[in-house]
Design a protein that fits this description.
mainly beta, 45% strand
Length: 365
């Protein structure tokens, strides 16, 4: 493990798979750990040999390229960026913060992949940048941040054009697991999703059911200046937010993992977990499906990002978290301006305004 940090953030990086194994945020004298770590990591148990490295080390946030099944090159699910080996190139420090730089030892479709994780003093935010040097082809890509909220989380997002579920249930075999949403369906917002039994449910309050594994995808509305996702977990005491350039990463996928997988390593114990995955992909249907024409490309959305054989491709993303204050209920809006990152949080009779220092240029805005 490789550790680095500043006053507001401490990161433990796992070079075996490139996962942010642990992230501690400090703000207003309080300390929180908003990200999830799979229960089998700390159990010391022996997992089946066919479990890939990325799933063995499932924690925090990691980068997927290609996202989901690597059905064109035979790499493990979510690609070598989530399953390969990252070498530390160096940790640069100055008065403003620290940047840890890594290089992936495996190539991705001929590209060398470099990672930079930047922390700035006084900012409860983790900035990440992945650079593909050379290579050929197009890949679905996404960040895979995860939270765990047994006490529930209120979800909100930058404006979305629509949402959709995959064509078929995530877990179609009742002997192995369960999905509860109706597949496929298109919807206007998470507050009105149809279940498989025909009932409606408000999925903007997660979890909304027990013992299920489901996926939904939200498409950014055209013209958004900042793509953002927020999860306010009042009982757990944190507000998590993800930030992106919506032109680069036009989708938010929610992986609702709440005890719906009975097979290893999940074994029915992976509960109250929500993946908030910002990316450019065709659902979770793999590399091949994302490169081909599909219902999302038919609506004008890209579902893969092309590498540049003689150039560089950069993908930037940030996430942050602050302790939740009593009475906070849901994030209404997030925007960036001259003063930093402005959050409007509903709860009680008033809306709370919170401004955090933020460097928008680090995510390409």
């Amino acid at each position: 493990m490789i550790e680095f940090g500043v006053d507001a953030v401490q990161v433990v990086f796992n070079p075996a798979g490139g996962h942010l194994h642990d992230v501690v945020m400090r703000w207003n004298g309080r300390e929180i750990r908003p990200l999830h770590r799979a229960p089998w990591i700390d159990s010391g148990e022996a997992l089946p040999d066919d479990i890939p490295l990325g799933l063995r080390n499932l924690a925090g946030d990691f980068f997927c390229a290609p996202f989901a099944d690597s059905d064109l090159d035979g790499a493990p699910g979510h690609g070598w960026t989530a399953n390969g080996h990252w070498t530390l190139d160096g940790i640069d420090q100055d008065s403003g913060g620290v940047t840890a730089r890594f290089t992936l030892q495996e190539q991705v479709f001929g590209a060398t992949v470099r990672k930079a994780v930047t922390l700035r003093r006084g900012q409860p935010i983790v900035y990440q940048r992945h650079v593909f040097e050379g290579g050929a082809g197009a890949l679905p890509m996404a960040h895979h941040a995860m939270i765990r909220a047994p006490g529930g989380a209120a979800l909100s997002f930058s404006p979305k054009a629509f949402g959709t579920t995959p064509p078929t249930p995530v877990e179609p075999d009742a002997a192995r697991g369960r999905s509860v949403l109706a597949y496929p369906q298109r919807f206007a917002g998470l507050d009105a999703l149809r279940l498989a039994d025909g009932r409606m449910v408000d999925a903007s309050r997660y979890p909304f059911a027990d013992s299920h594994e489901d996926i939904v995808l939200l498409a950014e509305a055209p013209g958004s200046a900042l793509g953002w996702s927020a999860a306010l977990a009042a009982r757990e005491g944190f507000l998590f937010f993800g930030l992106k350039d919506p032109r680069r990463l036009p989708f938010t996928m929610l992986w609702m993992s709440n005890g719906g997988r009975d097979y290893p390593p999940f074994s029915g114990r992976h509960r109250h977990v929500l993946g908030i995955e910002e990316g450019c992909m065709y659902l979770h249907l793999g590399h091949r499906a994302s490169m081909q024409p599909n219902p999302l490309t038919a609506e004008g959305y890209p579902t893969a990002i092309a590498l540049e054989p003689a150039g560089r491709v950069e993908i930037a993303y940030a996430f942050g978290a602050v302790p939740a204050e009593p009475g906070w209920d849901r994030v209404e809006a997030i925007a960036h301006g001259p003063a930093g990152l402005d959050l409007r949080i509903a709860g009680g009779p008033a809306v709370t305004a919170v401004t955090l220092p933020f460097e928008a240029e680090r995510i390409g805005l």
